[in-house]
């Protein structure tokens, strides 16, 4: 079955920000959008785009929020972080040393993308053990869950957001980005928006999420 395909509806764009040339992972805690820029996590007001505070932690790839703590991929590790203090509370191994991409929290698990590996792993958040794996036919960047649907970003020759079957990996729906725009990180706000990291553009973009099919 061919997936339903639409052009991505970009409804907001913030940045670039001085001193932050790169946007890696993105997550949302219900108040601010956290995005990773190599050496720190930035808390951004989703309405104005203003950075309201930041945490100095290594932040090289995906970012997630479990309702209380932040999780941040840094090279071959995933750090659990106190969002108030920036303290690293614990660390688990990531599936690979240098291929980890997006990170999400759902169903009591971490979900991590593998860029060149073209996979999404469900991880035990206590140990980092791989619980199951979903294959993709494109390079995987950001990962997020929205209303029980699994979405991930892709970015190689072009970029798109894809809703996939969380069991088979079948692509069900795609939102295509303009040719000069890529997606590094991805997060749903739980409503009708995706927050998308723009990689080396230094930008965070907001894409409207299509209404869920009944």
TrEMBL record:
This is Outer membrane protein assembly factor BamB.
């Amino acid at each position: 079955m061919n997936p339903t395909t639409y052009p991505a509806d970009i409804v907001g764009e913030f940045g670039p920000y001085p001193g932050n040339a790169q946007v890696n992972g993105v997550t949302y805690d219900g108040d601010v959008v956290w995005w990773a820029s190599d050496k720190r996590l930035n808390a951004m007001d989703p309405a104005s785009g203003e950075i309201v505070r930041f945490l100095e932690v290594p932040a090289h790839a995906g970012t997630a929020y479990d309702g209380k703590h932040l999780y941040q991929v840094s090279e071959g590790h995933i750090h659990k972080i106190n969002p108030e203090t920036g303290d690293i509370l614990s660390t688990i191994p990531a599936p690979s040393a240098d291929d980890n991409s997006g990170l999400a929290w759902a169903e009591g698990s971490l979900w991590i993308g593998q860029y060149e590996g073209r996979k999404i792993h469900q991880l035990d958040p206590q140990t980092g053990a791989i619980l199951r794996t979903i294959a993709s036919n494109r390079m995987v960047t950001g990962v997020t869950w929205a209303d029980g649907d699994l979405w991930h970003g892709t970015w190689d020759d072009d970029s798109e957001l894809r809703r996939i079957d969380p069991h088979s990996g079948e692509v069900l729906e795609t939102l295509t980005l303009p040719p000069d725009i890529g997606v590094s990180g991805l997060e749903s706000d739980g409503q009708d928006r995706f927050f998308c990291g723009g990689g080396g553009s230094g930008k965070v973009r907001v894409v409207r999420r299509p209404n869920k099919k009944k």
